[in-house]
Amino acid sequence: MSVIADWTSGAEALTYGKCRACGRVSYFRRPFCPHCGSEDVEVRIASGRGEVHAITTVARAPSTELRPFAPYRIALVGAEEGFRFMSHAADGLAIGDAVLTSFRPLGERIVPFVEPRRS
User: Is the Cβ–Cβ distance between 95 and 73 less than 8 Å?
Assistant: First the structure.
């Protein structure tokens, strides 16, 4: 698989890097491993499964673009592949909940969105 410039693969998957030299994973991929410096980094597609590590409700949006959507929920999710990422979140989620990631439109953008995992 070639290196994908964006942090999503066409907004249908979370992608990350896995170093072939040291085996560590990194989110916000780079052309080198941030842990050992190797340039032998494989691009992988994450399962979308994870666990909520933190969650908050944003009442005052940080930009005019996001103001129409406030209040909205944001979660810090630990992906089962070993990295953490931020995502918009369904109401009712709590720390420790198992989640599944999809992608949804938010204004002019497509953003990751986590919901409770059913299985």
Answer: no
- Name the helix (H) or strand (E) containing 54: strand 49-58
Q: How many residues does the chain have?
A: 119
- 102, two tokens: 């999809």
The structure tokens listed for 99 are 């989640």
DSSP 24: -
The pTM score is: 0.84
| DSSP one-letter code for 14 | B
- Cα dist. 67→7, 70, 88 in Å? 24, 5, 14
pLDDT in tens, 79-96: 999 999 999 999 999 999
Residues 56/62, Cβ–Cβ less than 8 Å: no
Token code pair at residue 114: 């986590």
Supply the pLDDT for residue 25. 95
For residues 32 and 37, what is the distance between their CA atoms, to the nearest angstrom?
Answer: 6
